[in-house]
Amino acid sequence: MTIFDRTMQLLHRTLDLREARQRVIASNIANEETPGYRAADLNFQDSLQAAQRGKGLVTLSVTQGLHIGPRGDSVQQVMGKLGPVPAGDLPLDANSVNIELEMAKMSDNAMQYNAAADLLARKFRGLLNAIREGR
User: Does residue 1 form part of some domain?
Assistant: First the structure.
């Protein structure tokens, strides 16, 4: 039996992935005026939901023969997929960053990060209350 249930593991991994996505979005914003820069995004929601539902194992790529494959819970194995943001008509400098879109994504990602952090904090408070009342 574990005191850290699957929900806590899911929230922990969500926080890690949202933090990584925030860095990608910040990089896009920082390179708004860099000629030829292509905006990227980190997509992980589908993989995280599949792992949560237990739909098969989520596997990591083994890029070299000496790499050891992941073991353990599939939620902790979820990795985001870094890919380009689809760009419509590019301006003359061929930069695909849309600052308004990136700022909106950053705000949404931060709100979802804060919500997950709040839920995880509540779970820990529940554990703490159970420990205190068990004395």
Answer: no
**Residue 120, in any domain of the structure:** yes
Write down the pTM of the prediction: 0.77
Phi, psi of 82 (to 5 degrees): -85, 125
Helix (H) or strand (E) holding 64: none
Q: What percent of the chain has pLDDT over 70?
A: 77
Which long-range contacts (C-beta less than 8 Å, at least 24 apart) are formed by 27-31?
28/85, 28/97, 28/102, 29/97, 29/99, 29/102, 29/103, 29/106, 31/95, 31/97
In a domain? residue 54: yes
**Could you tell me if residue 36 is inside a domain?**
yes
